Amino acid sequence: MIDEYIIEVKDLVKKFGDFTANDHLSFEVKKGEIFGFLGANGAGKTTAIKILCGLSSPTSGQIEVAGYDVYRETDRIKRNIGYMSQKFSLYEDLTVKENFQFYGGIYRLSNKQIKSRTDELLGRLDMLKVKDSVLSSLPLGWKQKLAFSVAVMHKPRIVFLDEPTGGVDPITRRQFWEMIYQTAESGITVFVTTHYMDEAEYCNRVSIMVEGKIEALDTPAALKKQFGVDSMNDVFLKLARTN
Amino acid sequence: MNTSVLAENISKSYNGLQALRNVSFGVKKGELFGLIGPDGAGKTSLFRILATLLFADRGKAMVESFDVVKDYKKIRNIVGYMPGRFSLYFDLSVEENLKFYARIFNTTIQENYHLVKDIYQQIEPFKKRLAGRLSGGMKQKLALSCALIHSPEVLFLDEPTTGVDAVSRKEFWDMLKNLQQEGITILVSTPYMDEAALCDRVALMQKGNILSIDRPEGIVNSYKPELASVQSSNMFDIIVDLQEFEDTASVFRFGDRVHYTSESGAIEKEKIESFLKSRDHDHIRIEKIKPSIEDCFMELMKEEKTEND
């Protein structure tokens, strides 16, 4: 079987003045996989994610996301992706239902679609009872799960998760990863960053960025073998020796 | 007195939301003490009360034998506080930030340079750069230098490593160990369970409660059930399959394996293996293992939940 790529990046360069944040990145993400995008702080991950989401233009390189060009078709890209981060998620002063309505509207879903997707996703989380609760009244773990559901409510082809589990308790963190697995199984590609190295093991493939370059890219098992260590934490420590 | 920081029955609520419930603990002089727990555990409220920036609703707290309410001015002089959100002025340079904090405490960079030297030297090449333009790891080093420049007796570090990569986290903990050698008492919070092992003693916290206080080994030793690590050829379905196994009490993913406990508390390898085989798993590996702090935390969370139900 030939792998079908949902993200194709060739020689991505992004410069800010003299500083090269992304230095000739080349990689592909397969359709339906869970792709871990790791790297030290300041390695250039956020810069690359912004480009892949159509929020920033590369300096040079050929990049296609969901089959669309990042220079000319950013609107199409935005319609085909979902995004969630720990920092930017839902509106605290809106109810759960209103958050779904708001994001559904942005993604141009019909009222009928919004209603059915809201019920479906809340049902899956067993959270139908909090539909009319204001978001700020809910525990953090619930909010994170809701934010993830909102990010996939328009059935994007790729969902970008930027440190989705930061600060969450260990049980909720694991429940969150079961949601990620279910999402990937439904055919949505998951592109995820994390500082929890055990979570790197949950990805199908992992890339590790160091100072603007991708220094390693493979399955967690192959990376551990390549570096002769037992855990992704040790792989990371061996590679990412920046300041 | 051998105690540096003391909290007795501290409670705090915000508009009916209970942030801290009857929290008591003591930190010995020179100790590296960790508050370990996720967001919402109450760690920041506790720091703010101890740093004299917030009143508790109930309870009593002392820092170096000074009362946090009556003697707040004295405490502020001997405590270095690094809040979770950066305490730096982003429109000042690296050097200006450090100078500013030194001046507030009526001292100079030169006077206490020996304390911050190892840390500050790593960012000194960028001393003219605005703090707002530093990378996360460098901001963290500058913030620690600023919290140290008046030579405090006690350091309060509120989630200094959150959102920081694994390499910088390791370096940060090495720095803390060095500071401990200088005789500084350190109270540090973190949501990363693996960092608990680096503390002398820890309090595991969840939703305003302390679940357990002990040395890391003590916490691990008080974990009751037998624990097994289980691997198979199909790590994708293993959780769902094991959850349907009648003996299973808990099954959690841990990196490239799952951690498993049974209802009886004992691990019966053959039974687990034959169950997994019946679900088409092969290359099954079951090993009894020592729990990590994270295993203990999850077990304590479950107990807490049962007690509250």
Chain-wise SSE layout:
The complex is a heterodimer of chains A (243) and B (309).
Chain A: E1 5-16, E2 19-30, E3 34-39, H1 45-52, E4 60-65, E5 68-69, H2 74-80, E6 81-85, H3 96-106, H4 111-125, H5 140-151, E7 158-162, H6 170-185, E8 189-193, H7 197-200, E9 205-210, E10 213-218, H8 220-227, H9 232-239
Parallel strand pairs in A: 3-8, 3-9, 6-7, 7-8
Antiparallel strand pairs in A: 1-2, 1-4, 4-5, 9-10
Helix pairs in contact in A: 3-4, 4-5, 5-6, 8-9
Chain B: E1 3-14, E2 17-28, E3 32-36, H1 43-50, E4 58-63, E5 66-67, H2 72-78, E6 79-82, H3 94-104, H4 113-120, H5 136-148, E7 154-157, H6 166-181, E8 185-190, E9 201-206, E10 209-214, H7 216-221, E11 227-231, H8 238-243, E12 248-254, E13 257-262, H9 269-278, E14 285-289, H10 293-308
Parallel strand pairs in B: 3-8, 3-9, 6-7, 7-8
Antiparallel strand pairs in B: 1-2, 1-4, 4-5, 9-10, 11-13, 11-14, 12-13
Describe the structure in your own words:
The complex is a heterodimer of chains A (243) and B (309). Chain A has two domains: 1-80 and 158-243, P-loop containing nucleotide triphosphate hydrolases (Rossmann fold, 3-Layer(aba) Sandwich); 91-155, no CATH class. Chain A is globular, with a radius of gyration of 18 Å. In chain A, helix 6 (170-185) links the parallel strand 7 and strand 8. The model of chain A has no long low-confidence stretch (mean pLDDT 93). In chain A, the strands form two sheets. In chain A, strands 6-7-8-3-9-10 form a six-stranded mixed beta sheet. A four-stranded antiparallel beta sheet of chain A has the order 2-1-4-5, covered by helices on one side. Chain A contains nine helices and ten strands. With 243 residues, chain A is α/β, with parallel strands linked by helices. Chain B is α/β, with parallel strands linked by helices. Helices cover 33% and strands 28% of the residues of chain B. Chain B has a six-stranded mixed beta sheet with strand order 6-7-8-3-9-10, sandwiched between helices. Chain B has a four-stranded antiparallel beta sheet with strand order 2-1-4-5, covered by helices on one side. In chain B, strands 12-13-11-14 form a four-stranded antiparallel beta sheet. In chain B, a hairpin with a 2-residue loop joins strand 1 and strand 2. In chain B, helix 3 runs parallel beside helix 5 (136-148) and helix 4 (113-120) runs antiparallel to helix 5. Chain B is globular and about 70 Å long. The two termini of chain B are 41 Å apart. Classes of the chains: A alpha/beta (243), B alpha/beta (309). At the A-B interface, helix 6 and helix 9 of A face helix 5, helix 6, strand 12 and helix 10 of B.
